[in-house]
Amino acid sequence: MAYRIPKYLQIKQDILDAIKTGVLQPGDKVDSESTLKKKYSVSAITVRKAFNDLINDGILVGVQGAGTFVAKKQMIRGLTSISFSDELLQQGYAIDTAIISIEEVVNPHVAEKLGIGQDDPLICVKRVRLANEEPLAFHISYIDAKKLSLEEAQDVIALKSFYKALEKRGIIPKWANENYSVKEVNDPVVSNLMKIKKGGATFYVKRTAFDERNQIVEYSETYFNKELYSVDVNIKFAT
Amino acid sequence: MAYRIPKYLQIKQDILDAIKTGVLQPGDKVDSESTLKKKYSVSAITVRKAFNDLINDGILVGVQGAGTFVAKKQMIRGLTSISFSDELLQQGYAIDTAIISIEEVVNPHVAEKLGIGQDDPLICVKRVRLANEEPLAFHISYIDAKKLSLEEAQDVIALKSFYKALEKRGIIPKWANENYSVKEVNDPVVSNLMKIKKGGATFYVKRTAFDERNQIVEYSETYFNKELYSVDVNIKFAT
């Protein structure tokens, strides 16, 4: 009797080959369980074992009630550049920014993070980042209105970049503290902009940026599409 | 007429005061919308505005169908120590580790990450980390079986630490590459161990750890409870 590889491994390999050769593209739906059952003359359990392995490896994604899909390539954020746009361009994405609002606000909670009086006016700039025309991120940036006035903040529209608008006024962030967590979006305005369902999870980044004199220049909160975003860091261990 | 602060700000302040004084503890349910409506003689919209502000600030958490709760304090992971246990102890948590399994396995996908032959045997150690008796993390660590044998890996049970078991054999990770993303848990084994609902989101960490000669010593995948975990990094911007 000839050596035969287990059927579930054969199914896995065929799916991997289809992805490698481009027959299956990121976001494509793969054949359903019942189609593969017939095609390979196997049980549902065998198909599910192949699917589960590929889902665990991050190659496929199961969507409740909709089927199984080829995972979208996550863009990887390295930690070297202030400009996320530049990083995405380097990774070959077509990017665009939609400015949602530029307002003067009062927010004691944010003022505290900026280290200013809790009733001091802040400039709040909201924008949606699109990568290949899909919403990638919703950014909310705050800056002391004494550093950037509401009028000066209008530069964001023409420059399509909050950081370029800061740079124009001589404000150049040199380093930042970032906090990463998972946040569910319950605000319908945010979920609509991000095209995710209410209560859906996002990769959430809180950033406090500092200039060369270690003065706080910006506090921001960003919701990233969890299918499209991850962060990569190298860490050294203290011994 | 005396100056009066808006009612929703009063509600917010009273909730913040109750948290500050310890009347409301992390995880406690706050008064329902209808209770607060009566208590302050305000509309549902006013109560909701107070709740929304506090939810947006990360102070309260709304749980669909269950009510509104005081957010649990997130433990913050700095990026200095290999030993997560040590960090948690410093932050005052009572920690414990439950070893789920220690097995020899073959996994071509992981073998590739470890830089060894795809049929080479691996030691796979699964464990659940508990902080104050709640599941905080489910860790799956892989190491080349030539570096740590199945027999040697049993040390993990007595030492209650994978890294201490490595250290005993002279294997000392010096740095690591970590990738952070959001992952939904569909494996019922994992969701049961983590006490989260099927399809629930986790903070997901993939780590490749290296020794002082830059040899790969470990590849691991960890699911963190999103309510309890976040990562903090300082980043410098290239100019």
Automatic annotation (TrEMBL), chains A, B:
Glycosyltransferase is among the record's keywords: no
Domain HTH gntR-type: 5-73
Name under which the protein is recorded: GntR family transcriptional regulator
Organism domain of life: Bacteria
Alphabetized Gene3D superfamilies for the sequence: Chorismate lyase-like, Winged helix-like DNA-binding domain superfamily/Winged helix DNA-binding domain
Signal peptide (residue range): none
Lineage summary: Bacteria, Bacillati, Bacillota, Clostridia, Eubacteriales
Protein keywords: DNA-binding, Transcription, Transcription regulation
GO biological process, one term: negative regulation of DNA-templated transcription
GO MF, one annotated term: DNA binding
Organism listed in the record: Proteiniclasticum sediminis
Presence of the UniProt keyword Lipid metabolism in the record: no
Pfam families the record matches: GntR, UTRA
InterPro entries documented for this protein: Bact_HTH_transcr_reg (IPR050679), Chorismate_lyase_/UTRA_dom_sf (IPR028978), Tscrpt_reg_HTH_GntR (IPR000524), UTRA (IPR011663), WH-like_DNA-bd_sf (IPR036388), WH_DNA-bd_sf (IPR036390)
